[in-house]
Each structure stands twice: as C-alpha cells, then as structure tokens.
Design a protein that fits this description.
MetI-like fold, 2 domains
Length: 312
Amino acid sequence: MEDKKPRAMTRREIRKADRATAVRLSGADKGFNLVIDSFLWITLIVISIPMWSTITLSFRPNTFLGSYFDGMFLAPWKWSLAAYKALLGNRGFLLAFSNSFKILALGVSSALLLTIPLAYVMSIKSLPGHKVLVMIVLIPYIFNVGIIPSYLLVAKLCLTNHLAAVFIPTAVGTYNCLIMRSFFEGIPNELKESARIDGCSEIRVLISIVLPLSKAIIMTIGLYYGVSFWNDFFHAMLYLTDNKLQPLPILLRNILMASGMNEYVEASAFGEAPIEAIKAASVFMSAIPMIIAYPMIQKYFTKGTLLGSVKG
C-alpha cells in the first residue's frame, strides 16, 4: 500500500495548536508587561511630539497666523518649502554640510582602522606586555589631560584649520575599543589556532578569520563613531577658525543664535520663509543622515553590543 501524504493543517487547527502550546502568563506577568508597554508608549509620545513639532514648524508658511499648537496640525497641502529652498540655495549651508560629511567619512574610516587592530592586540592575552598595554589604553580614559595640553598637541602637529583636527584626536575611543576587544575574545580560539597552524600571520588571522565574524561589532562601533563625529561641535569650534571649514554643528549654532538671518540666507529667500521655519529646517536636515543610517545598522546594533559586553 502507498503511504498517505500528511494532511495540511487548516488555519483554525494551527491557531488551536498555538493556543494549546502558548505559555499562560500569571497576573504578575501581565501587570509587568502592562507597565512596560505603558512606559514605552509614553516614551514614544514624549519623543514624537518635539520631532513632529520641528517638522511641521519647518514647513510653516510665512503667511501662517495661527497659534503654535495650530501649526502642529496644519494641513500638508498648506505646507511651504520656502525654508528648505532657502537653506539648499545657500552656499554656506551646502559647504558646511559637505564638511560634516567629509569629517564623518574620514573620521569613521580612520577610527575603525585604528580601533580594530588595537582591540585585536588587546584580545590576545598571551601577548608579552599585555597588561601594560591595557593600562596604557585605560589611563587616558580614567585621567583626562584637559583642553590646553590637547590644543597644544594639535597645534604642534599643525592640524589647526584642517578637518583632521576634528576626528584625529578622538579617533580611538577607549570605551569602543574595550567593547570590540570583548567581542574578539568571544570568538572561539580554535579558529585562530587552526589558522596559525596553517601558517597564517596575525594580520592574516585578523583579516581572514576575525573580521568576517565581526561584522556586527564593526557596524555598531562604526555607528558610535559616526554619531560622535557628525554631532561634534566642541573640537570644530576649538580647532577650526576658517569659515570655509566650519561643519554643520557650527553653522547650526550660528543660525539658532543669530538675531538676523541675512548673513546665512539671501534676502529674497528670507522674505518667503519665517526665521523659525529656517531654524527648524536646519535642525531637521542635520538629523537626516543619522535617521537614514540607523535603520540600516539597527539589525547589527543589539547583537554587536550584547556580544561585545559578555566579557566586559
């Protein structure tokens, strides 16, 4: 006799089986989940209201006469792009955006090129002088040298009024290095030993064995560095005095603090967009790169952070 093929389950049978195997929550568990859900919803609302307020303010036309609350619910077909046209039509804003993007790209690249080898070396506990190396890395993290010695060092290296002055002094973050080291220590040592037995050097082990398994932590640390360099205001203010080199945070500070906008926006464009709309548009546009980058890296973020902190 031929074997009968198993009958496919219907949706009702699948739901019934799921209910039978589902874990029943106690009253305490349901109460805890309710508290957590309420907290997350409140957090979402607290974050969303200022963000929505900034977005709607940036689209507010110059002819709007309602209250601030009314502007948050202004119909989309009544929005105006005058503020964004004013910013995108201004060479100073485009130049500052370009400088920030250069700092972001060069900063993340140089930071990862320096952090990855250092973290890998620190993960090799059999290395002679391993404890001394760890102490050398930890001492600047615990004891800050201060602003004046840092400025004198950057000036002696002739980095003032160069974009490199923004990302070179902070290219190696001790906290990021320690997280990456912990991740490297979690990689099975047998994989590294087998590569060494086959004649691979430590550089080859790092490139061929460790890095392909460390995509999550590299993306996570890269995100940390990216957010830091993109929002870096202090180092740019300290080391960059040339207006042609000022990044977006400096220009954004000037826009937000300026009483008149004529030095940033042409008079014709300024006549079409209110000052508050231009301020809100500049804030929103400065956040766009991070808004785009975070969802792309989010799937690596949790994995890289958790695995990197197991042996911290």
